[in-house]
Amino acid sequence: MTTTVDPKPVQELKNLLRETLRITTSDGRIFLGTFAGTDSQLNVLLANTDEFRLSPPDSVNLDGRYVGLVMIPRRLVVKIEVHGRNVSENRMRVAGGGGIGGGVGESAYV
Amino acid sequence: MDIDYYVDLPGGDNFEDVTELFVEGASQMMPGSVIMSEGFTLMDAMSAFEIGEPRMDSGMILEQADRPTFEPLTPLLPQEICWILDTSLSCEMEWHNGNTLSQTVFTLLYTHHLGDIDPDLVMQDKVFEDPQRPIGLVTIVLRAAVLGLLKCCDFAWRELSQGKVHDTEDWQSEKCDISLMEGVPAEHAIWKLDEACTYLRHAPISIQDRDALCDRILLRKALLEVYRLNLSEHKDMLRPLLVIARNALHRVRSLPPTPNPAPGSHALLAFDPYITRRLHNFIPMRIIDLGSTETTWIQLGELLQSWEDLDRLLNSHSLSAWEIGGSVRAWSTKYKLPVPFIRSLFQTSFFERNHVLSQHPALWLVDRFFLETLGMSHHLVQYTLQRAWASPGPMNLKEIERNLIKILVQHVRSFWFNPPRRRRCLMKLVLEWQTLHDALQSLTFNLLGGEPHVAELALMLPKTATLWQLSAAREIILSGFQQDLYAPHERPISYWYTAQVIELQLTLLDEFKSRVRKDSITFAELRFQSEFLIALQMLSVALCAITSKSLTLSSERMALNFRRRYKWLFVQSFPDNIEEMLIPLPPFENFERHISELKSGIHFSPRDVVQHAKQLLNGLCHINPEESWAPKEARERLEVLVCPL
């Protein structure tokens, strides 16, 4: 039986699962939701998501509206941000040999 | 698209950019692999809305949907205001037709900007004064009309949400967190509409424009007065208010049609069909085409007509009025299915809070049932039963009465269900009527049968329930044709069973007729029913013979199809647990034999049978509709039955 070890960037991505992400899209929207998953094409799944619109001026909606579970394709993603975590610190943790790809994000923390 | 990053970003500042990390991570993932949270499956992922996909993403702004900014305080011409008011009425009608508020009423952007155009809050120096476009037309007139529109929708929503018609089946309740002025008293909206009329009288606009706007404001006021009327307390007010609304509608329709706003007009921006992208409603919506103004006036006229029908039924104190009126509307294509709001209002008005027609106690239904079916009052039935009661225990009619009320209410209300739901409801009622029949029959077992009038009552009492049950069974079969449920090979079977059900009805009607006083209204109705049903039976037999050519399946296959289609007709008997028919109809095995007999009959000609049926139906004209429990409804029924022939 062989155990495949995920490359470091993939482990870092897994560490971000269940974190709150803020994704800015090219059509002037921001999605704030829980990171539920992604694939090799970089389509990002967000759960319990709120949508905010910052442009165009006529359609601005800073109060947000609940849109639930959404999949944001790579072609629309301008920026991805994670809430309240020092990612550099996590990178170090992963680099220190803590995380072996167990399929879920939590394994990196245990 | 540029984003102003100087505004407070949602979520605050405590975020770190991880875009590079994602790009790097994705590039090193195995092709086709995924990363997902624990417990989150591919199946869950498939239910996600795809952002950027126009069919799923309601918040997406398409290139063609890019439009200039809407400024609520932009002054408008009087004709533009008229156009907005007419279009908003079209939106209201489309909501009544079963679309969502976000597709219809909420596309009028002023519904979201009432605060911005409040004349008490508008800073006069910020408004550009244009002598042709007085700002009062927006802040006073348009605002009052929008307030009235939302309040009308609020009253309709309250009625619809009572559960008599079904959310997402008949109508759409979704408000997307937008206020329908629930907290604003109707009096305030009416006062604002009056204020708008007063303003218009002195506004610096032409007389034609003033009249056009005034008439529209008065129409909205009249509609609001009708919507807010509490029928259980003030039903006498309904007719005068409807007359006012009719007159207002007539005046608006008699004016020259309002021209569409010129291209580039700000009035065109007042409606945003893509409003869903900003509302709390993440289900993407189809953009609907609003009907023409003329269609809207017709629909509004039909709405008022339905209210007038309701007023008439509320003032006809008989069960037959509701039964005949409902049946005629269910049978004929001459009558359109009323909008869900009206169907709910009919049901509420018939029976609400244990009161019938807002004034009679529930027991009134029992009284009318016996009087109009059996020709005897409830009191007389009760008295006769009491006198002939032979059982040692006390006679308890209460449970039967309660059951009868429940069934009658459901039966009558079902006329204002949507057709498929009505059919399903009648299927359940066939069993309920049977239960009532059995209860009445077991009651009669405890009577002393010495006196002839007691014996007659004991015989006929359970049959009152059967008469209504057969009527429900007939409606179930025939409504299947209206709803295109039957495949060609099923049609002859359905026509044949219609004829069989009618045969049982005719036998029962003959029994009732022989026992009811010949000069009574009950007798006149029974006679009408008999003659009408003979004609209907003839038509069914003729159609059965004509359509029997499409019988191509084997007997076994047809028997299986029949069992599935007519499952409502079967019950498991106790204690043998054998499946038997609720109604004593001939078994399906007889069908083929009857068909071959029919075809081999030398003298049988469907054409002659139809001709004979036509003559019989035309002969119904000789029965005076005034000799009915419900003369107006009986006249309507006659028009429907006789006119097409």
TrEMBL record, chain A:
Pfam families: LSM (PF01423). GO terms for cellular component: NatC complex. SUPFAM superfamilies: Sm-like ribonucleoproteins (SSF50182). Residues 11-82 form the Sm domain. InterPro entries: LSM_dom_sf, LSMD1_Sm, Sm_dom_euk/arc, snRNP_SmB/NAA38-like. This is Sm domain-containing protein. It comes from Meripilus lineatus.
From TrEMBL, chain B:
InterPro entries: NAA35-like_N, Naa35_N, TPR_NAA35. Keywords: Cytoplasm. Residues 337-516 form the NAA35-like TPR repeats domain. Pfam families: Mak10, TPR_NAA35. It is found in: Cytoplasm. Residues 31-189 form the NAA35-like N-terminal domain. One of its GO terms (cellular component) is NatC complex. Signal peptide: none annotated. Transmembrane segments: none annotated. This is Uncharacterized protein.
